[in-house]
């Protein structure tokens, strides 16, 4: 239903673009169009972009020296006003670009109108958002590195701590906790390299592409590229104003990172249950229940797991916005910001929550070890021993070991408690040496292959990981 009370009474059209209009937009038009409530977050990048553009116009003599310095001083003043909360944002002025330009006019008068020479909000917003994303990646990389450090430090303390390793969430083979933690270090390492690629690819300067066609003014795009620390200047003005691949890429990489956090968080949730009791989270990262006094809930981990939903949601949203969008700029592109901001904010929170949880969790080594002893977790070691010691083909050894598990299950004992006679019935070549291969410790110690779980190997991997990721 259309609200009949709005708009008709507004006679004055927009000062920025209203030359051909007789009246103002309706309130609904203003509401759907305005982005200031969220793009004010780009104020710093917008001012940086405008200053670089102004310097370039001055250098090219498109602006006089006096106009150039007046504009730059005005922009610097606006930055101070925003940072000291003295700036009034207005949704009538739509977005951050027009809010700043309007204020500039109040402060310095007419030369403000010349700031927008040889540019458009289309190349301006594309530049601002690239700069913002470049910084966001730096921040996320910093957090990922800090998380890797916590994981490596914890791995170091637990390079020989034995726990069960799982496949299908069934006890598979004993592993070391340090080894387990280093698996996450690898994942976050891949995330960092994906962010690095994304940052390199987005580091192109679209400023000077103007609305879509470029400009007739004698601008120097290389100058603003250097000024804004971009590594190159974009080559096609139509692409420059319509491209949001970098938003998709940032959100893809962030989605993958959030999936990794979610997987780790899920393990933290499982491990801190009474049933597992492998770890205890500190009071700082747990909450109580308002009804069940005994509870210690791993809410931070649950939220790190849950937040992957909204981050992946933002990725789907921007891909859907861009799908089928004709070149070059359409206002649909304004929908790029809230998703990327939201994904960044929640990823940042999740990362910091995980850093906190990992840094002060308690490890219950006794529970880990006794759990590793369950589930006949050395059955593969038995099969390996049959191959190595008796030269039995692995398939046959596997079947022998299966028979031993069957015996142990039936007699409710562990593999190392099977009497030698029972082993001999499976294969009469089996001798007493077998027992030294059935302990959890010897199982773990024997996995010395590169990247394997033995404490010796894990120590090496910890050293490597420090070099690869933290130096
Ligand atoms: N607020 C707009 C955005 O975020 C800025 C670009 C507007 N350009 C235009 N031609 N209306 O996309």
Structural write-up:
- By secondary structure, the protein is mainly alpha-helical.
- The protein is 59% helix and 4% strand.
- It has a two-stranded antiparallel ribbon with strand order 1-2. A two-stranded parallel sheet has the order 3-4. A two-stranded antiparallel sheet has the order 5-6.
- The protein is elongated and about 100 Å long.
- Residues 1-10 have low confidence and may be disordered.
- Arginine binds at residues 35, 39, 95, 121-122, 125, 329, 331, 333-334.
Please name the defining characteristics of this protein.
6 strands, binds arginine, single chain, two-stranded parallel ribbon, mainly alpha, 471 residues, two-stranded antiparallel ribbon
Brief overview:
By secondary structure, the protein is mainly alpha-helical. The protein has helices at 27-33, 36-39, 43-59, 65-83, 96-108, 121-157, 177-202, 221-227, 237-242, 245-271, 299-322, 336-359, 365-372, 379-390, 394-410, 420-426, 440-446, 455-470, and strands at residues 162-167, 170-176, 204-205, 232-233, 279-280, 362-363.
């Amino acid at each position: 239903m259309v609200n009949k009370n709005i708009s008709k009474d507004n006679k004055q059209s927009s000062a920025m673009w209203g030359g051909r209009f007789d009246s103002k937009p309706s309130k609904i038009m203003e509401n759907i169009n305005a982005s200031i409530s969220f793009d004010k977050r780009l104020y710093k990048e917008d001012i940086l972009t405008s200053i670089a553009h102004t310097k370039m116009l001055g250098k090219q003599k498109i602006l006089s020296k006096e106009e150039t310095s007046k504009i730059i001083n005005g922009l610097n003043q606006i930055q101070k006003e925003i940072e000291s909360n003295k700036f009034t944002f207005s949704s009538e002025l739509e977005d951050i670009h027009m809010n700043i330009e309007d204020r500039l006019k109040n402060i310095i008068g007419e030369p403000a109108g010349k700031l927008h020479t040889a540019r458009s909000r289309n190349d301006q917003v594309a530049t601002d958002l690239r700069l913002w994303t470049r910084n966001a990646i730096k921040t996320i990389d910093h957090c990922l590195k800090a998380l890797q450090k916590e994981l490596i430090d914890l791995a170091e303390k637990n390079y020989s701590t034995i726990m069960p390793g799982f496949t299908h969430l069934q006890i598979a083979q004993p592993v070391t906790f340090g080894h387990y933690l280093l698996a996450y270090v690898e994942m976050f390492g891949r995330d960092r390299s994906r962010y690095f690629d994304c940052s390199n690819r987005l580091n192109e300067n679209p400023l000077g592409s103007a609305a879509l066609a470029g400009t007739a003014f004698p601008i120097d795009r290389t100058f603003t590229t250097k000024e804004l620390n971009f590594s190159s200047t974009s080559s096609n003005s139509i692409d420059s104003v319509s491209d949001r691949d970098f938003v998709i890429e940032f959100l893809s990489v962030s989605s993958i990172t959030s999936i990794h956090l979610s997987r780790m968080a899920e393990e933290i949730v499982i491990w801190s249950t009474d049933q597992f009791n492998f770890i205890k989270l500190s009071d700082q990262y747990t909450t109580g229940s308002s009804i069940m006094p005994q509870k210690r809930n791993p809410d931070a981990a649950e939220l790190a797991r849950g937040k992957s939903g909204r981050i992946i949601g933002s990725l789907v949203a921007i891909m859907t916005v861009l799908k089928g969008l004709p070149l070059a700029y359409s206002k649909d592109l304004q929908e790029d910001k809230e998703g990327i901001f939201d994904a960044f904010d929640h990823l940042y929170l999740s990362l910091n929550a995980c850093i906190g949880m990992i840094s002060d969790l308690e490890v219950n080594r006794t529970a880990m070890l006794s759990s590793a002893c369950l589930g006949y977790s050395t059955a593969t070691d038995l099969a390996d021993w049959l191959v190595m010691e008796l030269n039995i083909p692995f398939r046959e050894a596997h079947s022998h070991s299966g028979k031993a598990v069957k015996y142990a299950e039936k007699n409710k004992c562990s593999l190392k408690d099977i009497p030698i006679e029972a082993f001999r019935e499976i294969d009469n070549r089996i001798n007493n040496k077998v027992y030294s291969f059935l302990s959890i410790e010897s199982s773990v110690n024997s996995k010395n292959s590169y990247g394997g779980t033995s404490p010796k190997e894990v120590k090496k991997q910890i050293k490597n990981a420090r070099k690869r990721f933290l130096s």
